[in-house]
Amino acid sequence: MKKAVKWLAFVVFFLFFTCIGGNAKKVYKKWVGYPYFYTTYINYRNSSIKNYGIAVTAYLSLWHGYFDDFQFGAGYTYIKYKNQPNLKQKDFTFAYSNTNTILKNHVITCGFHYISTTDDLTDNGKVGFLDITHYWLDKYRLFKANLGLGLYYSFYNHSTNFQVFQLLPHTSIKVFSTLKEGTLYVDLAGYYIRVSKSKELQLSKKNYFSFGADARYYYGRTYFGIGGWIGDQIFAVKSGGFVVYNLTEEYRGGAYFETGYTFKNGLYSSLKFEVTSYKEAGEKPYQNVVTWCIGGKF
Questions:
Q1: 2-295 in CATH: which number?
Q2: How many CB atoms lie under 10 A from the CB of residue 249?
Q3: Separation between Cα atoms, residue 289 and residue 55, nearest integer Å
Q4: What pTM does this model have?
Q5: Residue 23 three-state SS
């Protein structure tokens, strides 16, 4: 495990210095930051195990010129249980993305996620990830579509010592974009998750499959998003490696609606409503989630 972490760190720093040095003479470099803060409330409906949860996350996307994006995330999660000790968890994430420098018309992202939690099974958890996405531009040199593949490998070696492999093919397509009608994007993604030692973890199976679809609409300063997924997931890694579901719930599908607005001063705010079905200890409750986000640029 230590060798894997060292190798991932080497790759990240190698890409950093290679891209910074290789592009220094080609374009003017300027640092631009996009900080965001997320507050989440979770309600576990019809659950005899969990009561509610609260999560706060700080995220920073730091661009160097047009090609290099350094992303940092730190989060804290608290889950109130009904008849057992409450969960307290800290998450830390780093990711680096390179656009069009390593490979032409490609975005390459690699990163690392670390979990410190009171959940004995997944404490000291580590997730390494790599995503390679090819994109196409239209005749105006604007985004047209992309197609990518994400690889995620999770190590949970605190007690049971098991691993989770996740394969994530995905694509985004711009349906239309005009000043009068706005811009509409459609996103599609498939999840394949394989869990080692599934019998020791008392899971229903070893391999999990699911499919998700989203629609994102932008009109002026206003944003609307709607989407959902079907299938089965467990220990899933989402949001580009920044969200990890490290508890043993088996999720069975979900849907969400989101709206956001960008003010004239550059401040952005959004509100997201999500409902997810899952299975835990023989029960099939629902997880209702509300997330408020605020961010900007410096």
A1: 2.40.160.40
A2: 21
A3: 10
A4: 0.89
A5: helix
Which of 240, 233, 215, 234 shows the shortest CA–CA distance to 225? Answer: 215
Look up residue 99 and give its two tokens: 């656009």
Domain ranges of the chain: 2-295
**14-23: long-range pairs with CB below 8 Å, 24+:** 15/96, 15/98, 15/102, 15/108, 15/110, 16/68, 16/70, 16/96, 18/102, 19/67, 19/68, 19/98, 19/101, 19/102, 20/64, 20/68, 22/101, 23/65, 23/67, 23/68, 23/101
From the number of C-beta atoms within 10 Å of its C-beta (0-12, 13-18, 19+), residue 241 rates as buried
Reported as a pLDDT band with limits 50, 70 and 90, residue 24 is very low
Q: Cα(188)–Cα(172) distance, rounded to whole angstroms?
A: 6
Number of neighbours of residue 75 by Cβ within 10 angstroms = 20
Instruction: Please say if the pLDDT value at position 26 is more than 80.
Output: no
Instruction: Please report where in the chains the tokens 């088996």 appear, as a residue.
Output: 250
pLDDT of residue 171: 98
| pLDDT given at position 21 | 52
SS3 of the chain: helix, strand, coil, percent, to 5: 10, 65, 25
Token look-up 């994007």 returns 185
Cβ atoms of 113 and 127 within 8 Å: the answer is: yes
**Which residues lie below 8 Å from residue 17, measured CB to CB, with a gap of 6+?**
none
* CA-angle at 146, arms to 231 and 94, nearest 5°: 75
